[in-house]
């Protein structure tokens, strides 16, 4: 004689499998939802503000009784800069027009400025934002000598210190063909 095993009706077994599958899906959804909620709570919004650095300079000149006593350059920008100046001295006629004539030179403050063969005078140092250079002149420059009048024009340039080109060449070397190292300016050797 055979004993017949009693098994659950087929419908009940299908409901049991469906219930277990639903429970597993529910547990997974709760886990994922809880993880997302936890991560959302853990990470706060961050706002980044970027301001581009600027290189902006201004020339200050002190002139008293036809004597130029002081020439400095002030860094108005937000970035440390290198500074160089060109000095042009011209003879003037009685109407202030430039005339042909030999213009006198000036005495350079060689402790703080270096003249390179390109004709520019380079400030020995990096000029921080808000700072001014030392006086370019070691002695005052008279704008009237031996009955002749002269004018001294100073043209200044600045370039951000520390910048590089896409090829990793320092920007100052690329633009000015000069480099500042160990407290001194030197011309950069041109590559063939």
Describe this structure in words.
This protein has 2 domains: 11-42; 57-186, no CATH class. It is rod-shaped, with a radius of gyration of 38 Å. By secondary structure, it is of the alpha+beta class. The chain has helices at 10-42, 171-176; strands spanning 57-64, 67-75, 81-92, 98-99, 113-115, 121-123, 141-142, 144-145, 148-160, 178-181, 184-187. It has 2 helices and 11 strands, in the order αβββββββββαββ. Strands 3, 4, 5, 6, 8 and 9 form a 6-stranded antiparallel sheet that branches. A 3-stranded antiparallel sheet has the order 1-2-7, with no helix packed on it. Helices cover 20% and strands 32% of the residues.
Overall mean pLDDT: 83
Total individual domains: 2
Radius of gyration: 38 Å
Number of helices: 2
- How would a textbook summarize the main sheet? 6 strands, antiparallel
Q: What is the percent of helical residues?
A: 10-25%
Oligomer: single chain
Summarize the structure.
The protein has helices at residues 10-42, 171-176, and strands spanning 57-64, 67-75, 81-92, 98-99, 113-115, 121-123, 141-142, 144-145, 148-160, 178-181, 184-187. The protein is of the alpha+beta class and 192 residues long.
């Amino acid at each position: 004689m055979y004993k017949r095993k009693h098994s659950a009706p087929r419908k009940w077994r299908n409901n049991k499998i469906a219930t277990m599958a639903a429970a597993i899906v529910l547990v997974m959804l709760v886990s994922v939802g809880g993880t997302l909620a936890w991560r959302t709570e853990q990470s706060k919004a961050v706002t980044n503000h970027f301001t581009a650095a600027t290189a902006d300079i201004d020339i200050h000149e002190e002139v008293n009784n036809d004597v130029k006593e002081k020439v400095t350059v002030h860094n108005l920008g937000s970035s440390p800069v290198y500074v160089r100046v060109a000095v042009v001295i011209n003879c003037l006629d009685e109407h202030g027009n430039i005339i042909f004539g030999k213009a006198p030179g000036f005495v350079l403050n060689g402790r703080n400025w270096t003249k390179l063969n390109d004709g520019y005078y380079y400030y020995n140092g990096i000029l921080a934002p808000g700072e001014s250079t030392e006086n370019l002149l070691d002695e005052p420059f008279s704008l009237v000598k031996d009955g002749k009048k002269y004018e001294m024009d100073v043209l200044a340039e600045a370039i951000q210190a520390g910048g590089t080109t896409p090829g990793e060449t320092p920007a100052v070397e690329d633009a000015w063909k000069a480099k500042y190292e160990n407290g001194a300016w030197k011309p950069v050797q041109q590559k063939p």
